[in-house]
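Listing S7. Sequence submitted for prediction.
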Amino acid sequence: MVLKKFSISLLVFCIGLTAAVAIPQFRDAIRKKFLTEQRKVLAKASSNINADEQEYLILKVKHKNMIQLEVFLKSESSLKLLQKFTLQGTFDGFFTFAGEATNLVITNLDYDPQLEILAPTFDDDFVAHLQIFKFNIASQQFELLNEENWPSTFQQPIIER
């Protein structure tokens, strides 16, 4: 008798679980229940990125199912959000830089006065992406480097694997 009740309970549970996974409205409702609204700081770096002596704070943040890069200007008493970028990929990435495993780097790839920000991620298929941001002096904004705006002074970055 106990085994029969257990079997019926298990069958009802399996049917409910199958419905929850198969029906998009149920799946989304369950996901919203468990998906947190909180932000999680994955990495933090700060540096004088320009020759202007202003210090910038860079945060790599996980929020829901996306990873963002937030750029702040630091002053003695406050932080001012300058820009926010949504990174390609939903999982935090790591790589070896200067012998250390890291997930956010501020470095000078082209040996000019501005430093670059390197932020690795992985997409849903676990394909790695390395996003490189450079400060544009003319616009006073950070830009994501891609094939169209890749500086001629850059060589392809060498990253240890």
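Caption to Listing S7: primary sequence and predicted structure tokens for the chain studied. The chain has two domains: 2-34, 39-144. The chain has a mean pLDDT of 83.
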